[in-house]
Amino acid sequence: MLLIETLLILALVGWQAVVFWRNRYLAQRVGTTYPVAGAVAVQPIPFTAANPEKDFAIQYDALITRDASPEFGQIIVDTNEYLLNNRGAAADFSILKDISERHAEALDEEIQAQIATPLYLGLLGTFTGAILGLVSLVGNPFAEVSENPHTDASFSNGDVQHFLGGVLIAMIGSLFGLAFTLAGNQLLKQARAQRDRNKNAYYTFLQKALLPKLNSDMQAGMSNLKSVLDSFNAEFFSQIQNDFFSKIHEFTPLIASITENISVQKRFLEQLEKIGYSELANATVKVFDRVDESAQTFEKFLGYQQALNTTVTHSTEAAQTIGSLLNRLTALEQGLASVPQYLQQHDDALRQQVAFFSQHGKLLADIGAQIRQGVSEGVHRMDVELDGRLRELQQEATEAHEQWQRHFRELNSNNVYQKITEYLNPFTQLPAQQRDLNALQERQAGLVAQALQRLEVRIAADAALQRSLLEQVERTNTVLEKVTQPNWFQRAILGKK
């Protein structure tokens, strides 16, 4: 098992090294994103329009560089495209800065996403080693516990030593992961500092060299535009003066048509005079009478029209209200359509939690059963040993001294309290692990803690019983010494001391 853990940790360390070298390469790219100061220059670039017969060749100011990184090369390309499309106008420094920042942030986010990968791989190795060590130590945790204490297999020192060795090997992976992560963060910090220095130098170059040149080019273009407009105005007015008299001859037919229209109007007035203005006035009065008669009808029509307009206005408001209600109903329908999906996700999460709690509850129940079984067997062995000691003390009083010495050696070699303590050592970390569980697991952990407290009380009672037994043995030894001492007759007559 240690060989398997060692191979796994070596594979994880190799994986961590590969990720670290990749992070180191990305950090170098971050540091060299922007060139050093003086590596960028401004150069006029000729540009021919798409239609050379109508458009003439122009020049625009572009950025050039040497030995640029791929990221900065893309920044130069995008900046030159912006300068080409924005030629003749004032360049915006915020747009140039935004073009640069997007490419730099893309590379920075790429390395930031995987800078802590060695640390996570180290934690993976630690947990894997601990799990393999526990598997080799516990074996099958779901197997039935043997009722025979002589065939019950407990944790030996060799098993615990192998488990601790596996954990130590697994923690080496975490140590390498932490070291690789710290080294990667340090390299990234240095690369960012170098990038920021070069970036500030690049921005300073844009503000000192490129933007003033673009502004001066715009002023020169405005001056050229003014001269072109002046020449156009002079040519335009001279052309108007030359063509003025020719345009007057072109207006002669129009004047003739106007004269003819005036003649027609003169004839109309002559005919009107022949008819008579009195008849025209009478006809006009009749027309106005008819208009007066129809005024009331028009007023009623206007009232109907106003009522119709009011109705149309209210209808429009009602239509808007109905439209807003339909929009709200549509939003409500969409929300109700998404409710089953949310409920399904909630049910899935609840099923996963119930399965998780059931699995851990079963595991805790198995652990509690093993603890109770071990304690019961230990107490049973203690009762058997104590009963045997009492029977042997009553039956073999003459050999009490040697018997009790042998029993004391056996008790010292088979210390039940020490064995129980060794059995409980693997579970000292159990409360710390159960704090991460939910309320159900906390209640189960509380029950286990209460059981352990009762076990400690039982062990304390057994220890008190052992102490009282030792006191009884000491009193028995004292009585035996007094019994075996020679009396005055043996000392005086037989000479025994």
Automatic annotation (TrEMBL):
The keyword Transmembrane helix appears for this protein? yes
Alphabetically list the UniProt keywords. Answer: Membrane, Transmembrane, Transmembrane helix
**Mind telling me what this protein is named?**
MotA/TolQ/ExbB proton channel domain-containing protein
The UniProt transmembrane annotation reads 6-23, 119-143, 163-188
Species in which this protein is naturally found: Hymenobacter montanus
